[in-house]
């Protein structure tokens, strides 16, 4: 009888503990949701080439989609009105990062390479801005595909600086982070060194649009057929310190990261490159058995070395 009583008490304790853990997780998710401030990027029509939408903005994920670390991925399509979703860290020195999710310029991997990244950045004291840039744009061609997204990213950097007092942002520590196609977008913005891709349209555009640092995870489409950095990318001393990570077995070739690192080295730009033997593509920050998924720890150490975070 006593043994049965102990078993009942233990079961009740496990149930309560499980409920408490689930409640904490839900409260954490709700807190993250409450922290986000959504800002429309443009006062009217966005500058540059528009997205080629075929309907309303929608999450296109399906039950049959490939899971990443056992979880599905939110896939936002048909973005014609770009936004920035601002997540402010509770304890920050003012460092801020604009996040460009990947998705092949067709969709945005919104949670995997957006919101989850913002939560990680907040946890290490960095303000985060998830950029909902215009998609799809792939049909605009090789350079046209990133025209609109780059404009959106530059506008987001200027908007962050325009709200520096309101959001307690250090104007000299505003960086950019991107994945895959978003990694290309972030790289183009970084390489531009503050040269705006569109004509200024208001007071926000009087603020600088450069990135003070760049973090590029498996950036895409940056090399030619011979594996050399494409001619439209010209690295200079204005290119900021850059962190790169890629997997050798990524079907989106790691030579994009290798070639960019070589160009950064040649221009004497402080940079750090990590190529892992396995890991594939599109893992975001979700940890798995693949060593490459521990890259956020390396990025955090790099940010400390660069004096971006304490």
Descriptive report:
This protein has helices at residues 2-35, 111-123, 147-162, 164-167, 181-192, 255-266, 295-305; strands at residues 36-40, 58-59, 75-77, 83-87, 96-100, 108-109, 127-132, 174-179, 214-217, 242-247, 271-276. The model is unreliable at 1-33 (pLDDT under 50). The strands form two sheets. The protein has an eight-stranded mixed sheet, with helices on both faces. It is globular. Helix 3 packs across helix 5. The chain is an alpha/beta fold and 310 residues long.
Main sheet: strands, sense, barrel: 8 strands, mixed
Approximately how much helix is present in the residues? 25-40%
Question: Overall mean pLDDT score?
Answer: 90
Distance between the termini: 57 Å
**Compute the gyration radius: what is it?**
21 Å
Strand order of the largest sheet: 1-4-7-5-8-9-10-11
What is the molecular shape?
Answer: globular
Proportion of residues in extended strands:
15-25%
Low-confidence stretches: 1-33
Number of helical runs?
7
How are the SSEs ordered, and which strands pair?
Blueprint: H1 2-35, E1 36-40, E2 58-59, E3 75-77, E4 83-87, E5 96-100, E6 108-109, H2 111-123, E7 127-132, H3 147-162, H4 164-167, E8 174-179, H5 181-192, E9 214-217, E10 242-247, H6 255-266, E11 271-276, H7 295-305
Give a short summary of the structure:
This protein has 310 residues and is an alpha/beta fold.
Task: List key phrases describing it.
alpha/beta; globular; three-stranded antiparallel beta sheet; eight-stranded mixed beta sheet; 310 residues
């Amino acid at each position: 009888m006593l043994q049965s009583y102990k078993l009942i008490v233990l079961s009740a304790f496990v149930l309560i503990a499980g409920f408490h853990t689930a409640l904490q997780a839900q409260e954490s998710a709700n807190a993250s949701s409450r922290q986000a401030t959504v800002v429309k990027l443009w006062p009217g029509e966005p500058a540059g080439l528009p997205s080629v939408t075929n309907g309303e903005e929608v999450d296109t994920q399906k039950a049959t989609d490939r899971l990443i670390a056992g979880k599905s991925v939110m896939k936002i399509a048909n973005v014609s009105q770009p936004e920035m979703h601002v997540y402010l860290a509770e304890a920050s020195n003012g460092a801020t990062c604009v996040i460009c999710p990947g998705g092949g310029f067709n969709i945005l991997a919104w949670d995997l390479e957006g919101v989850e990244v913002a939560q990680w950045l907040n946890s290490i004291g960095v303000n985060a801005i998830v950029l909902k840039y215009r998609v799809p744009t792939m049909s605009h061609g090789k350079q046209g595909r990133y025209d609109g997204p780059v404009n959106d990213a530059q506008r987001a950097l200027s908007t962050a600086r325009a709200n520096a007092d309101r959001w307690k942002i250090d104007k000299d520590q505003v960086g950019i982070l991107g994945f895959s196609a978003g990694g290309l977008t972030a790289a183009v913005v970084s390489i531009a060194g503050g040269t705006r891709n569109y004509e200024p349209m208001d007071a926000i555009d009087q603020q600088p649009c450069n990135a003070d640092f760049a973090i590029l995870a498996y950036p895409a489409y940056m090399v030619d057929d011979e594996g050399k950095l494409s001619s439209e990318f010209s690295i200079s001393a204005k290119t900021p310190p850059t962190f790169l990570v890629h997997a050798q077995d990524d079907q989106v070739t790691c030579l994009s990261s290798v070639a960019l690192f070589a160009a950064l080295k040649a221009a004497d730009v402080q940079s750090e490159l990590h190529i892992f033997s396995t890991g594939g593509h599109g893992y975001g920050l979700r940890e798995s058995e693949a060593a490459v998924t521990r890259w956020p720890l390396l990025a955090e150490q790099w940010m400390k070395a660069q004096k971006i975070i304490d």
